[in-house]
Design goal:
With 402 residues, the protein is of the alpha+beta class. Helix content is 37%, strand content 18%. It is built from 14 helices and 19 strands. Strands 6-7-8-9 form a 4-stranded antiparallel β-sheet, with helices on one face. A 4-stranded antiparallel β-sheet has the order 11-10-12-18. It has a 4-stranded antiparallel β-sheet with strand order 15-17-16-19, sandwiched between helices. The radius of gyration is 30 Å and the shape is elongated.
Length: 402
């Protein structure tokens, strides 16, 4: 028994010696593979696209190192990104990430969230002026109203940044968090309530901030007839010659030269075709009347929006879809001068949303509903629309009534 006790005590002392040695031993430095991974591994690990990874870099959400054109990322930084965006409680029986995506899809990629917040600070001003995928500078209520706040659409989400305070940047939810002083599920819930979104409820695919137009009421007083400016060729002429109604445009398209239109469609060189069109085709501004063709020379908005569809394989099928659209009543529809596209003229309520808001929402709606790409130049209120000859032009019959 004594021998066993001695052996056991000896074993314990040896174990303590080993533990002491290990405690004092210098730590082996982490190898490259334990700390750094390349972009391909990040995309595979997070199940994201190359463009999404780029947006994480561009917005400063994910630090990186670049060597000879190749990007490397620290594993701890990726873990921190995941932890920062971790949400433990579901919202409306869905994960927060899924709900955030729904909110983005129902707020014009988050742009409506920014607009809603900015309108609370500047109720009598145009708070966002969109130009393509970016905006012109807006006032920043978080930096003393400086005109330095811009928004840019990256991977189907508008990110904000300040042109002077470079560390002031992020996504719509981070912007909303600064305003509402809430986070997590509470933040998402107040966004849904404040913007009157229908998350988790039965809804259609139409952008929710633009409601379907109600059936027109019988008017017992004269109604203002929308008018447009007509400009004679070439396109470099920016002074209008006269004003037209939609009926006037209809009659002009029917009477336009067949030979001129067919000659344009026979030009195979795209550059030469554009040059010929610009030099020979008259054009109108469907969104209103102008003193000259530029956005800030608008005299009166017509309440109409022209949507361009280019390079369409089946024009007749698309015509039928647009004429039977559930949300927009077609006012006019005709073939583009090139012959492989359509010009779709619809009415919008300019008192409810800006021209730019309408365009972006309708553009997103068409892309989701019909998988169609829309010419982004239509966002400009002074957008020129060239007039060809089209004997099959459609016009809403109410415009032909005496």
């Amino acid at each position: 028994m004594t021998e066993i006790t001695v052996m056991f005590e000896t074993l314990l002392r040896e174990i303590e010696i080993i533990k002491t040695y290990l405690a004092k031993a210098p730590e082996e430095p982490d190898s490259f593979d334990k700390v750094w991974i390349d972009g391909q591994d990040v995309m595979l690990s997070l199940h994201i696209s190359k463009r999404t990874l780029q947006s994480l870099r561009d917005t400063g959400l994910l630090p990186y190192s670049r060597i000879q054109g190749k990007f490397y990322y620290k594993k701890p930084d990726i873990e921190n990104l995941l932890v920062k965006n971790y949400r433990s409680t579901p919202f409306n029986l869905k994960t927060m990430a899924h709900t955030e995506q729904e909110i983005l899809m129902n707020t014009n990629y988050g742009l409506d969230i920014y607009a809603h917040i900015l309108r609370e600070f500047y109720p009598d001003e145009t708070v966002i002026n969109l130009k393509g995928r970016e905006t012109r500078p807006s006032k920043n209520p978080f930096t003393g109203d400086s005109l330095t706040l811009v928004f840019e659409e990256i991977s189907n989400q508008f990110f904000y940044k300040d042109l002077v305070k470079t560390d002031f940047q992020g996504n719509p939810f981070q912007f909303a968090e600064m305003h509402f002083k809430k986070s997590g599920n509470d933040l998402l819930e107040i966004i849904v309530q404040s913007l009157n979104l229908r998350i988790g409820k039965i809804r259609n695919k139409f952008p929710l901030f633009l409601k379907p137009e109600a059936k027109p009421k019988i008017q017992l007083f004269p109604v203002s007839i929308p008018r447009f400016s007509l400009f004679h060729a070439p396109v470099t002429n920016t002074i209008p010659s006269k004003e037209l109604t939609l009926k006037g445009v209809y009659e002009l398209i029917l009477a336009n030269s067949v030979i001129q239109t067919e000659h344009l469609r026979q030009i195979s060189d795209k550059k030469l075709a554009r040059k010929y069109k610009a030099a020979n085709f008259n054009y109108v501004t469907f969104s209103g009347t102008f003193s000259s063709r530029k956005d800030d020379a608008l005299l009166k908005h017509s309440g109409y929006l022209a949507i361009d569809f280019d390079h369409i394989l089946d024009l007749e099928s698309l015509k039928a879809q647009l004429l039977n659209d559930n949300f927009f009543e077609t006012q006019m529809l005709f073939k583009s001068p090139s012959g492989d596209g359509l010009k779709w003229i619809i009415s919008i309520d300019i008192t409810q949303n800006t021209h730019q808001d309408w365009f972006m929402a309708i553009k997103n709606y068409l892309e989701q509903t019909y998988q169609l790409k829309v010419d982004s130049a239509g966002i400009d209120v002074s957008r020129a629309c060239f007039l060809p000859n089209d004997p099959q032009i459609f016009i809403n019959s109410k415009h032909l009534m005496p």
